[in-house]
Amino acid sequence: MLDAIVYIGRFQPVTLAHIEIIKKALDLAEKAIVLVGSAKNARSIRDPWTVQERIEMMKTVKAIDASKVCFVPLQDSNYEFSWWLSKTHEIVKSHTEAHDKIGIIGYKKDESAYYLDYFPEWEFIETPSLYEGLSAVDIRENLFCGRDLDGIADEVRVWLDNWIKNNNDAYENLKEEFFYIKEYKKMWEKAPFAPVFVTGDALVLCSKNILLIQRKNSPGKNLYALPGGFLEQRESLEDCAVRELQEETEIDADIATLRNSIVLTKTFDAPFRDMRGRMITHAYIFDLQSKDLPKVRGADDAGKAFWLPLTEIDNLQDKFFGDHYRIIKNMLKTLNSGK
User: b vs e for 259-276, b when ≥16 Cβ sit within 10 Å of the residue's Cβ?
Assistant: First the structure.
């Protein structure tokens, strides 16, 4: 008998397979520590529910003895895996004693489960594929398409019905995004190979502020993001970042000033960073040496462009599109480490 078993998942939504794994963990240990991933992410068709909502969802399931489960939020970290490992250990340590026997449970379905190999000090309990490979992706698709929801407990079905009634605007926005992505992918379905998209993003700093846009259209409608967009056939990556910056913010700064202010560039290529497909972005930091903030105005794909004090970034993490918050944090950390 183990003292605790760790189970890491996104639970978008909670499926019958998730429930069976938690039950198995409680059969093998005194308690289960369920780390609920994608905490503080903005709503999207991949992450429709907040971490608090998913914990609430799980607590409604009668088959789970919630008194023996510690539900703990865990943020993603596409570009800071060492931080994520450290945070995971920190959380587990806070819910166990020094000499406890700890296990970690999971199913190595594909490369996305790589993290399970990074806890050699814990006993690994591998679970088989349950319910014929039940997928939360399929359940989400059925939800947005208004089809029957197989693969979830009755309590979860009731919770989802109530959530839709009480959050109809959020649900309709997610449906809009879902069908936008579906139509977007149709344009490429006859291509001989899956396309790889390349984009350029601009992280502009000035007087301890960062320049952001609010997206006007799906995907990520109304969410905050870096100015940026797709690379055109006859331009360099730097040209792309500068052009998109000017098009989306109409920033009051000439091209020479912008180019001369570039102090760092990094590539961000997490495989699932964008629901439209494989999207690799090259981000540039523009450090404007000015006491006054240049005038900006949202244009093109941006509904709004605005300056935000850097001290306010962390408070708005769940308002950012995709991985843009993590790109910002990663680039600022790299920039500051070089100073």
Answer: eebeeebbebebeebbbe
Q: Which helix (H) or strand (E) holds 332?
A: helix 324-337
Tell me: pLDDT of 163 over 90. Answer: yes
Buried b (16+ CB within 10 A) or exposed e, 123-137: eebebeebeeebebe
Burial tier of 337 (Cβ tally within 10 Å: 0-12, 13-18, 19+): exposed
Say what the pTM is: 0.93
How far CA 136 is from CA of 15, 142, 150, 175, 270, in Å, comes to 7, 10, 10, 16, 20
DSSP letter assigned to residue 252: S
- Indicate the pLDDT class of residue 165, thresholds 50, 70 and 90: very high
Omega before residue 219 within 30° of 0, cis: yes
Domains of the chain: 2-166 (3.40.50.620), 196-337 (3.90.79.10)
Specify the residue for token string 């996305």.
112
Q: E strands, 58-185, where?
A: 69-73, 102-106, 123-126
Give the number of other Cβ atoms within 10 Å of residue 292's Cβ. 9
Of 140, 129, 77, 169, which Cα lies nearest the Cα of 275? 140
Phi, psi values for residue 192, rounded to 5°? -65, -25
With bands split at pLDDT 50, 70 and 90, how would you rate the model's confidence at 198?
very high
* Residue 282 Ramachandran class (φ > 0 left, ψ -120 to 50 alpha, else beta): beta
CA atoms of 207 and 289, how far apart (whole Å): 8
